């Protein structure tokens, strides 16, 4: 059975970490607007480049992101969607183009989120995620998966991380209400080890 799963949660809640596990477990596409936009940071749009919004911790304009998501979902036979929707207009657009089986909201305290974001390191070559304290690589600064260099994302400084959290708290409530009204939203406590959080999510998806 192909799954259509949406993971919601603040920056640092573990959406990327859990989406990768879900995509692996169920053999579905991992569709993430953050990665898609980072790969197209310099793309000229009528609103400017995605980079100009991302480096300030702001949302990229809806038409740009909606188009990326529609194309990705069109091509996917089952997916786990991460980083989208981030406001009510995106949520309504998503509901108009697909039907979701499960919407999971990862719940994590704000100060834990800041620690996770500022300590995150990402492989410059393969994109694998690490954390200097919670998920350290075997050799500091070197990716366990491919030997690539681990770097800090430009928007993971404390100042930009806090700005991203502000943007999330301002925009997310209507999104959560939208999916709660559709009767598909389940909240999952995201403060445990990645494997424990994954077990909780799998329980929701399968039951
Ligand atoms: P995006 O890339 O989507 O970033 P985000 O939502 O801010 O989410 P993150 O990737 O920071 O966090 P995550 O929840 O995936 O956490 P992770 O698993 O890595 O978006 C970036 C920017 O792009 C936005 O600011 C915006 O400008 C733009 N954008 C994207 N989508 C958009 C949209 N729809 N509309 C408009 N603009 C958009 O985990 C974080 C760290 O914690 C890692 O180091 C990890 O190792 C660690 N960790 C994870 N789980 C645990 C755990 N259980 N215990 C301990 N540590 C853990």
TrEMBL record:
Group of enzyme by EC: transferase
Localization of this protein: Cytoplasm
Superkingdom classification of source: Archaea
CDD domains: ADK (cd01428)
PROSITE patterns: ADENYLATE_KINASE
Signal sequence, start to end: none
EC number of this enzyme: 2.7.4.3
Pathway(s) served: Purine metabolism; AMP biosynthesis via salvage pathway; AMP from ADP: step 1/1
Protein family (similarity comment): Belongs to the adenylate kinase family.
Protein name as it appears in the record: Adenylate kinase
Lineage: Archaea, Methanobacteriati, Methanobacteriota, Stenosarchaea group, Halobacteria
Originating gene: adk
